[in-house]
Amino acid sequence: MLVEASAPSLYAPNASADPKFSRPLVDTTRTITVIPEKVMQDQGVTNLSDALKNVPGVGAFFAGENGNSTTGDAIYMRGADTSNSIYSDGIRDIGSVSRDTFNTQQVEVIKGPSGSDYGRSAPTGSINTISKQPRLDSGLDASVSVGSAWFRRGTLDLDQAINDNSAFRLNLMGEETHDAGRDNVKNRRWGVAPSLAFGLDTPTRLYLNVLHVEQNNTPDGGVPTIGLRGYRAPSAGTAALNGAGRVNSENFYGTDSDYDDSTTDSATLRLEHDLSDSTTVRNTTRWARVKQDYLLTAVMGGATNIVQPNRNDVQSWSWSRLANTKDVSNKILTNQTNISSRFQTGSVGHDVSAGVEFTRETQTNYGVRAITPPPVNIYHPVSSISVGGLDRNGANANGQTDTFGVYAFDTLQITRDIELNGGVRLDNYRTEYDSATACGGTGRGALACPAGTPRNTPITTIDTAKSGNLVNWKAGALYHLTDNGNLYVNYAISQQPPGGSSFTLAQSGTGSNANRTDFKPQKAKTSELGTKWEVLDKRLQLSAALFRTDIENEVEQNDDGTSSQYGRKRVEGYELTAAGNITPEWQLLAGYTLQHASVREGAKTAQDGGSTVPYTPEHAFTLWTQYQASDSIALGGGARYVGGMHRGTDGAVGTPSSTEGYWVADAKAGYKVNANLDLQLNVYNVFDTHAVSSINKSGYRYHPVEPRTFLLSANVHF
């Protein structure tokens, strides 16, 4: 008998690469979006933030506080900052840097609490990148790309079998570019990722992975919001700004001294052993370090920061600038053991994943001398000035978190059509934190020097610790309506303690800092009702889900000046996704979400005084599709919609309280020259949409959507 089956879609992997998710994705009772390597290649994606544009409602929407700007992959998801819930192969990926995808096999986005999966994490989701591993099918893939704004990039992916059971893989990357929409913003990075595998196709396998990435970038403090919808001058004396028009979105308000350097190193050893055909044990050890230092200059908004040499000539006005500095080192050392097994107890089938984890994370922030940049002209900024570099002043802040975690998940096959699943994770943690401030400074947080103490002497300001236990759990049920579709429900609880992944603790007292040691962990409860289907000969996966997340223990200030944890937020809505092949030649990845994020109890956090949670678009849509028109020609295109968002509140006057929604369209044309060479042209923002991509808390600054650009790539395969 001949059995025929369609080849699996490269746009829709069947399973997660994380062994904690042991069921096929179509039978996993969670909203999980997988962005495979094929999609990233077709789109010309080179970094994590761009890859996440394939997931509706996920993105870099927040541009930082007043004078401070966000850096790296500053990701928001379902109303919460998810930057500290980014993982690599199931291990926390430390640091606030931009992550290149040259060594990434796929990106997995899990929406809803992930505490039972990874321990302390953001309340509304997590992001897990999967690294490339050696294979026995030897081959070489290389790419050379050029594009707008002097974009230049080269990558190499070499996989070489050593013998019948061992292989070596090497991934290389180098990139240099100017930002197409921003003057003077440049990026340069290179990376190398060698890996070895032994025992492939045998019961015992050993993997060794090393990663080294260096980046030398110019950070971007953003553009003043003058002239945008909702802007008005902050005072009568500055009313001329109301009719002055927008500033040029290409303007750069930094200095020649601005820089953002980082070095990422990691080494991973993973041993796998099949105890039987149905049981596998894995042990993973990883050491990683991310060192980053930067000087980022941003304008300070508000009437008091405006310099008016000629009050009648707006073109002569300047804004003061603030120098943001960072000199930090993050390290992680972890050992994780997992066992997965399938077995029967009577008529009930079990699919079990259990494990233990020991992790130490440390962070050291070095204090640096104060830098005071001169004011900058609002409409005609000059960046060709030097304000010096970073000099450590002896002050520092040190944080360390030790965690022991144990977890167990089980999916019970009750009948052919009914599955029940559940899991629990217990984490015992201890966070220690101390900080010293250089006395004699000025501005917010300045510390006076004790009598007889020289200026810039480090004075210990905080020395405290917090320990406790976190119990996170999830439970779900799935009913197979047909062989192709199911209906499921899921409920999960996730917690994040004071200090979170930033280690910063505040001593107990009357302050409103959410990281006070006497405060309880933030808790998130999520319920989800959904359905998943495999259609068109199981080439295309469709899903729909209703969700609600309640976040508790938010810190609120009482009328008497004290603080309590009675604040509550809720994010609810629905999500629709499609991934796979409509026909063998036509591929698709699409998603739409509607999300209402509101403050249920406590102070309003949006500038307009409403209950909406900031930086959360109510509507978001993403689509990418590609059609193989012939053996040689492939045509692709996509569209993204990000709905309008409210910004946070901090007392700023006259700045926009929200952003407007916008559409962006992309396109691709591919031509296969022969079996070893193909050419690819990607055009981004085809219609040159001008819009606000992210806005800062005060509304003084924003980052614009990148203008129309192109990328031409030559890809070779052997």
UniProtKB/TrEMBL annotation:
Compartment(s): Cell outer membrane
GO cellular component term, pick one: cell outer membrane
Molecular function (Gene Ontology), one example: siderophore uptake transmembrane transporter activity
GO BP term (any one): siderophore transport
InterPro entries found in the cross-reference section: Beta-barrel_TonB, Beta-barrel_TonB_sf, Plug_dom, Plug_dom_sf, TonB-dep_rcpt-like, TonB_sidphr_rcpt
Ranges where the record places region Disordered: 110-138
Domain TonB-dependent receptor-like beta-barrel positions: 228-686
Domain of life: Bacteria
Membrane topology: Multi-pass membrane protein
Biased segments, Polar residues type: 123-132
PROSITE patterns: TONB_DEPENDENT_REC_3
SUPFAM superfamilies xref list: Porins
Domain TonB-dependent receptor plug positions: 25-125
Keywords for the protein's UniProt record, in alphabetical order: Cell outer membrane, Ion transport, Iron, Iron transport, Membrane, Receptor, Signal, TonB box, Transmembrane, Transmembrane beta strand, Transport
PANTHER family in the cross-refs: CATECHOLATE SIDEROPHORE RECEPTOR FIU (PTHR32552:SF89), FERRICHROME IRON RECEPTOR-RELATED (PTHR32552)
Name by which UniProt lists this protein: Catecholate siderophore receptor Fiu
Source organism of this protein record: Duffyella gerundensis
Gene name in the database record: fiu
